[in-house]
Amino acid sequence: MKIYFTLDPRPDLKEPLVSEFPEIDFTFHKQLDESELADTDVLVTYGEDLNDHHIELSEQLKWIFVVSAGIEKMPAQKIAERGILVSNVRGIHKKPMAESIIAHILSLKRALPFVYKNQQNCEWNKKARLSELNGSTALIIGPGAIGAEIGRLLQAFEVYTIGLNRSGQPAPFMNETYRIDELKEQLPKAEIIISMLPSTKETKNLLSYEDFKLMRKDAIFMNFGRGDLVSLGELVRVLEDELIFHMVLDVYEVEPLPADHKLWKFDNVTVSPHFSSHSSRYVERSLEIFKPSLKKWLSGDHDVENKMDILRGY
């Protein structure tokens, strides 16, 4: 059996993997090489490097392990037609992403951008807008594994957490949980609104200018899920009209965000380059999911962890 990685883990991660599965023919590259696909049984990839042609070349391919949570850029229809199993690393992002989100919130609440700017200008200035995270309310749209970790950390700061999911069933570390179709009723309640939603037909352009009008004037809106939740045009309108206090964006409808885009010019937005999940431990945590799944696969059990419906996108 051949397992082809279109990424090249560090030696301290790669060598134990090869030793643990001596019966496997592992191939590691820093990027996809089409000549390796024909005899590949299992493909380990970030997903964005695949297209329809690659699936056609992969005549023996049975399983794609995606070292990412999102699969929206993969050739879903072609993969589904072939009946190829897809699983991902859902859940490994929760620690670094939750830390990034908490860091951004505390930075804004305690006026750290103001501090950094003053330091650069050698200016002693105490006229900052300071507030507390303690005692506020956060609305988490999509309280899955990452959302639950955000909720856990927020509750440590005595933040009241409200979750929105498809079912309305209770979610971990949420004080209340509602259905996502109750969004408009919940938006006015929160000082902090965090979207962790995946990209699906239902979530595309879910938020509009009118939804931002329902938010509090002192609200912080954060999108760390997928960029097609709200169009760039709508975001610009919201910022121009100062409907809310601040936005923190890690994902965008178009990536990379063009250098001449209006979004860069506003003071009431933080533009993060879609790297909140990055960590020196990213591949390490991915392999912690891959190894047990591979053992299952080799024993004939294809009910691997984080098995996905490629056409649904999750």
UniProtKB/TrEMBL annotation:
Keywords for this protein: NAD, Oxidoreductase
An MF annotation (GO) of this entry: oxidoreductase activity, acting on the CH-OH group of donors, NAD or NADP as acceptor
Residue ranges of domain D-isomer specific 2-hydroxyacid dehydrogenase NAD-binding in the record: 102-275
D-isomer specific 2-hydroxyacid dehydrogenase catalytic domain ranges (all copies): 22-275
InterPro entries: D-isomer_2_OHA_DH_cat_dom, D-isomer_DH_NAD-bd, NAD(P)-bd_dom_sf
NAD listed as a keyword: yes
Pfam families: 2-Hacid_dh, 2-Hacid_dh_C
PANTHER family: 2-HACID_DH_C DOMAIN-CONTAINING PROTEIN (PTHR43333), D-ISOMER SPECIFIC 2-HYDROXYACID DEHYDROGENASE NAD-BINDING DOMAIN-CONTAINING PROTEIN (PTHR43333:SF1)
Family stated for the protein in its record: Belongs to the D-isomer specific 2-hydroxyacid dehydrogenase family.
Protein's UniProt name: D-2-hydroxyacid dehydrogenase
